[in-house]
Amino acid sequence: MKLSIRTLLLAASVVLTPLWANAAQTEEFTLKNGMKIIVNEDHRAPTVAHMVWYRVGSVDERNGVTGVAHALEHMMFKGTKKLKPGEFSKRVAQLGGRENAFTSKDYTAYFQQIEKSKLEAVMALEADRMANLVFDKNEFAKEIRVVMEERRLRTDDQPTSKLYEALAATTYAVHPYRNPIIGWMDDLQNMTVNDVKAWHDTWYAPNNATMVVSGDVEPKQVFALAQKYFGSYPAKTLTRTRPQNEPPQEGIKRVTVKAPAENPYVVLAFKVPALRDIAKDDDAYALDVLSAVLDGYDNARLSAKLVRTDRVANDVGASYSGIARGPVLFILDGTPAQGTTTEQLEKLLRAEVERIANEGVSEAELKRVKTQLIAAQIYKRDSVFGQAMEIGVMEMSGFSYKDTDRVIEKLRAVTPQQVQAVAQKYFGDDALTVGTLVPLPMTEKKPAAAPAGLRH
């Protein structure tokens, strides 16, 4: 899961009042064992979002055990020395709350949303499974089958998902982002309970975790509870894998996937810079604004030209997410209309970026794009969970929640010249991987039901 820089702009209030402007609203504290606690006060309703984020995801896996981070996420609900399998979720439900978890390339997170008086109870549950998880081989055998069925349901039986999986494996020659978060099927079939236990024992440590609590709480109370339930756990020595940097790309890469589908589809992935230095990486902000110019509102350039005016595509899109631990991509994609081929749509998508590279964007258009981004927030009510998510993603990606205001200000400062410059600089053949879906006849087979135990 990646957070678009542009999404941070949407998270600000409509008048761009800084989300973290009130110093008393958000506080942070670090336990002696290295666990960071961040508390965001929001007293509008007596509810709390409690999240524990581990800075480990599929990017940290090695070949042969891909999918182990996600498999462990499933096993975290399968019992501790105190709780039977499934009892964690039952207890949260009995408290009137909801809970779940998610694994991304960069991190794994667990959360509960609860009435504020129940915070201590869910914090105790979360602390218990950080240190006291039970790895029963029979429970693992059942759960890994659930994971494999999840893979079939969400990837193997979904043509666009299969294409994006093949695209990542083609785009990246060596970087772990080439592997799917859920793992390759062969790795899942050969995974053992000891693989998952080793992952937990290596990475699930207080000094690799950040707790985020957002809602109707007092920081001092949260800090005291965190110390009570997590403070006694010892820190661990964390050894990150060596950087696996991509070699230079020399020419366009292409991958084709044939699968039963109703329509053809094409996706163009350009290697572009990520946001690393908030003060200096102006190109990252300009790329985010470029994606908004192309596909950031109802009448943005791609849809207006290719769908509504020329009618050469049924749908088109552009996206960029610069906040990540690893390399990032700028995506152009679309479904060609009847009479248009994927090859033609590929050229038409690139032509729209080239038009910006040649002609630029006007101040009026740029202002309109930014206004649309801000106006979207008028009808969007922020939530304590949304605030906790934003804090967690920033922290896991190597930034601080305090950087949010600076990011917003940098986005506001992007000029037409900067947008034109990145359109000229980053969209050549040597940065491009093209994925094409070739549709095969649809079968009469009905979609499979979601597997029991599917968590997210």
Automatic annotation (TrEMBL):
Residues 37-182 form the Peptidase M16 N-terminal domain. The keyword Membrane does not apply. Residues 190-373 form the Peptidase M16 C-terminal domain. Keywords: Signal. Pfam families: Peptidase_M16, Peptidase_M16_C. InterPro entries: Metalloenz_LuxS/M16, MPP/UQCRC_Complex, Pept_M16_N, Peptidase_M16_C. PANTHER family: METALLOPROTEASE, MITOCHONDRIAL-PROCESSING PEPTIDASE SUBUNIT ALPHA. This is M16 family metallopeptidase.
